[in-house]
Amino acid sequence: MSATQSFKGIGASPGVAVGHAYVLDNRRVRTPKVKLQENEIEPEALRFKTAVELSSSQLDDLKEKLKRDSEEGSQDHGLILEAHKLMLQDPMFIVEVNRLISEEAINAEWAVRRVARRIKHQFDNMEDEYFRERRADVDFVADRVVRNLLGHAMDEEVELPKDSVVVAHDVSPADAAMLVRTGKVAAFVTDLGGQTSHTAIVARAREVPAVVGANRASDSIRSGDLVAVDGNQGLVLVNPTDSQLALFRETMRRHQASEATALQTAELRAVSLDGHQIHLNGNIEFPEEIPSLLAHGAEGIGLYRTEFMFLNRTEAPTEEEHYKVYREVLESMGGKPVTIRTLDLGGDKVPGKKPEREANPALGLRAIRYCLHHRELFRVQLRAMLRASVHGNIRIMFPLISGLSELREARSELEHCKSELGRAGVPVGKRFPVGIMVETPSAAWIADRLAQEADFFSIGTNDLIQYSLAIDRQNRDVAYLYRPLHLAVLRSLQNIVRAAKNAGIPVAMCGEMAGDPTYTLVLLALGFEELSMTAGQLAAVKRIVRQTSRNEAQSLLERAMEFSTAEEIERFVRHEMEKRFGGAE
Ligand code: PEP
Ligand code: MG
User: Fold this and answer.
1) Cβ-contact 554, 490 below 8 angstroms
2) Which of 158, 428, 430, 454 is 20 to 30 A from residue 136's alpha carbon, by CA?
3) Domains observed in the chain
4) What is the pTM of this model?
């Protein structure tokens, strides 16, 4: 038997799987370099045009194929492929390649690679991992064009054995989606990629465990090797020993059992023993995540992070593109509430041009500040949301509101767009709530005033904790200080909830704290009416709400808040949760 090896990567899609490796050999094709003669330039431009057209029609075919196969009838990964298609039409790409062919007399393959490298470079200095990851998409598109220029076959269907662990240097979204659709992928392992890479997104949407960024796993693993993948821990074991395998199988069994319970309890509501209901919603970045949310019983969408639409592109989406996606999301949710957050772009998350570096991006021109600074970009999105509002149960939410003036300005932009559309005779939903994310200490302190002018609150604890405790949420060195149960956070939450209740507006939470079952009793005690989280977290939170009473939760919170340090409070809460529920998981 071959030697046991292990790889540590990023757990990008939860779940555990054991299967035999299927190593995809999809490293980039070698790009020939040729200097052209004067009379070869025109035919070369034509050759490039044909390859682009072919690439575009291949992406259309793929989209169609995936759509036909999709059981859920959703657009599936169509949007990602659509974004790739848009890159093929991007003038920055087309014009530049043609310019290199004609001015520098180089062959199309080489020109494509050079332009791709330049586009990728624009993403290099972005701090946000999501945008950095988009470099891979540029490669996928360039690769397709180069392969077509060279006459290599594309999108060939591979015969996967059942329960294959697909191992690759990287997997394009097209390949990932095609492979998953065979129903034979047990897990993905890739050398490249991060949490927001497309393999991760496709895998999460289809609930296939994945470990990405696993270094040189694809060099060492051979097709046929037995591979155990833990997508929660980011762990890959190759040819595990019998005892390791037994442990994996046990974890797998537990995961499957809890997933089965989650699906069985999807229809149950989160009502406590004394009748308090908490509405459980889902957070999404892409419409592709909706089928899984619905299967896990989400009652609505509590947070749709629309900035993720700026996927692998250099130009901002058009109003029509925004509109189509929002409409799709609203329609797929079939009348359930959908909270669409306006763009949370920041100084370091600006597609198109190289951003000016801000000394403190988290304290800089971010989210609502950015939108109020770039009015046209904001209006494009608002008009699209308003047009989409007739297709479902929309709620519009502004991020990072730090004072009343910002809320008023944002609302007045919305009103302005509404009247504009009204004058043009475009139908707009009659009444829908317009709320804010409470995620700055200033908003927490003036929550009573904000509650007079916002239709709802949703607390973004990821930022509220970062700003309240002065901890950069991206900085590993201070991660140990990131404590949701810090007394300052709990008092803030109390203040925000109280303000909302006094004003009679609903209060939700959509930060990570909402989906961690350790905190469920604390949140029930505080009086939240709605919590929003990822699909996989819904069942555990629901189980806790259903097994307890609000009174019991309140007495736990009172006792917890008698302690002073975050560590003491956390130790106490964890101990109590363990006693009652045998661990929060
Ligand atoms: C938050 O800050 O808690 C939140 C939900 O928003 P984001 O994580 O997108 O900043
Ligand atoms: Mg936030």
Assistant:
1) no
2) 158
3) 5-24+158-250 (3.50.30.10), 38-150 (1.10.274.10), 271-581 (3.20.20.60)
4) 0.71
